[in-house]
Amino acid sequence: MRFLHTADWHIGKTLNNFSLLEDQQAMFKQIEQVAKENKVDAIVVAGDLYDRSIPNEAAVKTLNKMLQELNLCDHFPLLAISGNHDSATRLSTGQDWFAYQSFYLNTSLAGAFNPLTIKDTQFFLLPFFGIQEVRNYFDDDSIKNVNDAMKKITTEMTKYFAPNKTHVLVAHFFAAGSKRTADSETLVEVGGLSAVATDTLAPFDYVALGHLHNRRALNNEKIKYSGSPMKFSVSEAKQEKGVWIVDTAPFSVKWVPLKPVHDIHLLKGNFAELIADASNYPNEDFYDIELTNKERIPDVLNKLREYYPRIVSLHRTHQAQQAQFNFDKKRVQESPLDLLAEFYSQTMGSEMTSEQRAWAEKALTEVMKGEN
Amino acid sequence: MRFLHTADWHIGKTLNNFSLLEDQQAMFKQIEQVAKENKVDAIVVAGDLYDRSIPNEAAVKTLNKMLQELNLCDHFPLLAISGNHDSATRLSTGQDWFAYQSFYLNTSLAGAFNPLTIKDTQFFLLPFFGIQEVRNYFDDDSIKNVNDAMKKITTEMTKYFAPNKTHVLVAHFFAAGSKRTADSETLVEVGGLSAVATDTLAPFDYVALGHLHNRRALNNEKIKYSGSPMKFSVSEAKQEKGVWIVDTAPFSVKWVPLKPVHDIHLLKGNFAELIADASNYPNEDFYDIELTNKERIPDVLNKLREYYPRIVSLHRTHQAQQAQFNFDKKRVQESPLDLLAEFYSQTMGSEMTSEQRAWAEKALTEVMKGEN
């Protein structure tokens, strides 16, 4: 059989307050297109369908429509699990009805031992889990970490292995040896207690993982992250996004890149250069900008946004020295004009001109009047 | 055909911070039993399945299980709409899959004009709606109130009437002539602009309403509130709760009462009487108590809760006069002891004794020390 492996849709996610819903819809249409062109027998979504446990109504409407389109309109069997960003309970709404239409959504540990068979393949759907949940399930307090937990889980799963079938695990966790690289992933303790050793996953012919957003986070032929289908943070700016097309017999894996609708660009330059270059960049894309000017430019973010409306972060190569004021009793006795002059010189690296000083004095006098 | 008419389940509702989930589950089991015993062909739930637009996870789990049991286990066709307490979007999750199993959930105005036929009956499922929504739908700004809106809606619905069928409307609104009696209903403007005249509903053979919690709120043979299946506020304490069993041919309506698991009692008496009577009342029931003692009894609520653990409200027949303090500059200059003495006399209706005064003075002195 042939299936499409994707994960980490994070429907409803924002990028520094910019909604990504339209981009997510466009990304979805590409995934749907890839599934159709490759005539897949099923689509696997390995967790984090939503970005949060209580997504807003627009996100709910959007994901409902996507799943409805893939499953009820296009008639793709769907295999999905809840990730750490999803509420297992909320996401599970409707799952008993979904199953009648070959949409298999599992959000419980117990459900992971009820494999789904499609053509030559058994799929084991393991949602994101907590260690205590696994201890309770097996009534085994000797489970100390997530790898112990996964050993128990995989051993249990192998009992349900049908011979002569391909065995695929769909899961959402941090696999040992993989690199966490992006800000938009949930913070996980790298290595050690919080990681599953890839050896533990050896019984499976393929492991379709979700959690990390970079498909290159793990370098393993049969254990793969699909990564997120689009860039969700500046730290993902240089990652190529896409989906895996997996064939079971003979086994083969093909990477199909997806084209970002609005890319994230990392720009570096001085103010004049950035403005001069602006016409080379799509207006609606996202920008992370490193500003190289030494001098302070008032209201620089808003000025740059006239050229790059969707700046998601702005850094300075030469961070202006932070003014250090000690507001002790002595300083309070200094005149506001002297304090301002000192602040100016510290921040700008030069003294106020006599014109600036005169202007400041006038402004301060006006302000003082207002106080009485 | 025969169907069961219920509404206003409000899953997740609390009664003064006491969870009602267990009571709601028991109430559900009774409804299920009534449906089985009466061999109904469908179950109608006329809105407010949840108590709030974002129900908590326990409520989500509970309602999901109830619907799953009625529809997928017992194989009852379900007909449901969203009420004003539900989020139409959130509640709609899964609805396209539900329909394959004869669970017809409608949460949109457009869907109201797509009747469902079960045996001899066409059901029109009209969710709770806003007037602007109706104006937009019909592109008609002449709609001034909810009755205008309903006239448009029913006229449109009659276009889809199949001859020789019984026509049933399922809706969630305030019908003119009905009485709002309970605190747990959402505040509606009674009569006038916010009510639907019963004349407007004349085209239907039966109207299964939700919204008001008292089935006696409206006295009409063919337009009925089922009321909530259990008491949700003290103001509903004296209402009999239940469901309607409706037969279409020949038309007949039968009331089937449900037995409350934990009833709400209205008690009145002095402290000694209330305590003496406590053994006559179930410990886990809910109580609204009117205390007739004239004198103040310190910590009276907690004392009564030793006998009636689930008091949801406590009133006094002789409410102690509310102390009126004017914290103007003059009063601030009075001594704390004088202020306390005045507060005591106003609240208790008598002066402090010399012992009380001495104790208060000592306590105040201690407090003052701490200030420096």
Automatic annotation (TrEMBL), chains A, B:
Keywords: DNA recombination, DNA replication, Endonuclease, Exonuclease, Hydrolase, Nuclease
Function: SbcCD cleaves DNA hairpin structures. These structures can inhibit DNA replication and are intermediates in certain DNA recombination reactions. The complex acts as a 3'->5' double strand exonuclease that can open hairpins. It also has a 5' single-strand endonuclease activity.
InterPro entries cross-referenced by the UniProt entry: Calcineurin-like_PHP, DNA_Repair-Maintenance_Comp, Metallo-depent_PP-like, Mre11_N, SbcD, SbcD_C
Domain (Calcineurin-like phosphoesterase) ranges: 1-214
Gene3D superfamilies tied to this protein: 3.60.21.10
Pfam (any one): Metallophos
Subunit structure, interactors included: Heterodimer of SbcC and SbcD.
A GO molecular-function annotation: 3'-5' exonuclease activity
Protein family (similarity comment): Belongs to the SbcD family.
Domain of life: Bacteria
Domain Nuclease SbcCD subunit D C-terminal: 261-347
Organism listed in the record: Limosilactobacillus rudii
Biological process annotations from GO: DNA recombination; DNA replication
Protein name per its UniProtKB record: Nuclease SbcCD subunit D
